[in-house]
Structures are given as C-alpha cells and as structure tokens.
Amino acid sequence: MPVIILESHSQEQTRKIGRFLGERILSGTVITLNGELGAGKTVLAKGVGEGLGIKKAITSPSFVLMNIYHGRFNFYHFDFYRLEEEEELWELGLEEYFYDEGVVLVEWADKFIDSLPATRLDICIEKSKDNLENGRILYFIPQGKFDLTVLEELESQCFC
Description:
It contains 5 helices and 7 strands, in the order βαβαββααβββα. It is α/β, with parallel strands linked by helices. Strands 1-7-6-2-5-4-3 form a 7-stranded mixed beta sheet. Strand 6 and strand 7 (136-143) form a beta hairpin.
C-alpha cells in the first residue's frame, strides 16, 4: 500500500489536515496516531473531531484513557500512553468500539498495535528536522483493506 507523506509548518496546518480527514472518513474507520511527546497527535485529533462536526472542545484523554464525542459519527478518542498491559484494553471494552458505527482514533497506538483491527489508517507524526518549532512530517500508512480514496484526496490538497 502507498504511504502518503505530508509536511506541516504549523499547528494550524496540522489541524487543517486532521479536519480534512475528519470531513471525509467513513463510519467504522480506525485511525492510529504515533509519535513522540509533543509531536502533534492531539492537534491532529482535534482537527479530525472538527471535521466530524464536533462542537465540544477535544482534549487529550491521557488521564481518562478515552473520550467520547458526538458529531456526524460518534468519535471515540483513546490514548494508550498510560496503559501498561494489554489486558487493560479489554477492561475498557475496546473491541466494542471497533465494530460501532463511529470513528475510533487511538493515540500511542504502537504500544498495542497487534490488538487493533488489521484494516486501519496508521499516522506517524515526526518533528521536522529543519528546526521549525511547529514543523511536522506526517506519514499516512493504510493497513489492510483501508479505502484509499480519502488518502488520494488528501495528497492532492494544499493546507497552506
């Protein structure tokens, strides 16, 4: 599967990319976000939520592990950062959300990547090596039978 690489020069640009994605993704989509602390995972997640039509402020679920928002689809925003054991995922009832009509977004998903559905969109965010304070490189890596239509549209856009 093709990897789409986008560059962002600001938090607003990263948020716009997320918003574009949120406006186009289908129900049942699982998105994973990976990257170091401060890479912009939650900024991108906020954009996805805005694209789903969520009016409520989207916050990082680091301490509560999951937030649920209601928009065009239910938006299940997970954060695996504080989880230590895979068993904790099942205590949360994680698998139920994968088969819902909503959109699942998981920050720090690489901690338990084998527990996630095979069809998903993995997004890795890296800080730019050009020493730009808010510069980021975003890698969109479709997995399984992920529909490439939204990625083709994403690649053709300018988020200036």
